[in-house]
Amino acid sequence: MTYSMVARDQSTGQLGVAVQSHYFSVGSIVTWAEPGVGAVATQSFAEPAYGPQGLELIRSGRSAAGALGELIDQDKGEATRQVAIVDNAGRVAVHTGRSCIPEAGHQVADQASAQANMMRNNTVWHAMVDAYSAAGGDLATRLMAALEAAEAEGGDIRGRQSAAILVVGGRRSERPWEQKLFDLRVEDQREPLPELRRLIDLKRAYDHVEEAEKRILGGDVQRALEHYEQAAAAFPDNMEFVFWHGVTLAAAGRVPEARQTLERAYAANDGWAELLRRLVTVGLIPEDPELMRALLPS
């Protein structure tokens, strides 16, 4: 009993599904996706097997419609199911069973579909498609716009509880975990969508940190600093970002700025000062007593 959207981004090939419901941990049931294969939303009186089995059928050569048709044909409970699939070619297939609780329905767009059941209004899925189609940005941003539009249109008649988003890359790979771009869940929250949006922004900030680490390993300290600065600017109270920004400033020879930045971390938790000492033992900071006196609290 929920609303969701599945979609493929035409420019990147990314595949995704996003959902919100008055139900605990909805993302553990509804959202399924595999890089370069497809995305599935399985809901209403949900049969979770539609997710992995639908993806397996697409992987073996079925279209979205072929996969969904085969699953429905084998399911005695199909009248209570609501399922949407998008495949790696952007083909979409949707099923809203005749026994889904009103208001229930779906709307297909270009390489996307919105579907909902037990809604306050029968305009929810149309509002989702309109918002998704009008939104700019990457696939995660557009999926989030669809969820927020659904809520603004009345959403689930029972209210709100959990939400999730899953976005994967558009290329098949033997290492699919490397193409999992967003896999975020809000399991039990009075207002799950604002929290899901915050988590998406936080994930983007951590992506900057990951890129900074790669730059450091490649010897490009200046570019690493730029990424740490972007992460810290987005979440100034995240001491993980603050600490590593300070360490990278020290690596760039900007010791007074590094000390000033690190002081914020020390003030939040004295464990950061001890961590700085331990970085010396593994070679991440030079064994330089003068440098450590300049960086550590007195």
Q: What attributes does this structure have?
A:
298 residues, alpha+beta, Glutamine Phosphoribosylpyrophosphate, subunit 1, domain 1, Serine Threonine Protein Phosphatase 5, Tetratricopeptide repeat, 2 domains, 6-stranded antiparallel beta sheet, 4-stranded antiparallel beta sheet, 10 strands, elongated
Outline of the structure:
By secondary structure, this protein is an alpha+beta fold.
Number of helices: 11
Sequence stretches where pLDDT stays below 50 over 5 or more residues: none
Radius of gyration of CA atoms, rounded to a whole number: 23 Å
Quaternary structure state of the chains depicted: single chain
**Residue fraction in strands:** 15-25%
CATH H-level superfamily title of the largest domain: Aminohydrolase, N-terminal nucleophile (Ntn) domain
Overall residue-averaged pLDDT value: 96
The profile of the biggest β sheet is: 6 strands, antiparallel
User: H/E element string?
Assistant: EEHEEHHEEEEHHEEHHHHHH
CATH architecture descriptor of the largest domain = 4-Layer Sandwich
- Described by the principal axes of the CA atoms, the overall outline is elongated
Top-tier CATH class of the largest domain: Alpha Beta
Q: Might you state the CATH topology name of the largest domain?
A: Glutamine Phosphoribosylpyrophosphate, subunit 1, domain 1
The structural domain count equals 2
Question: What portion of residues is helical?
Answer: 40-55%
What is the first-to-last residue Cα distance? 58 Å
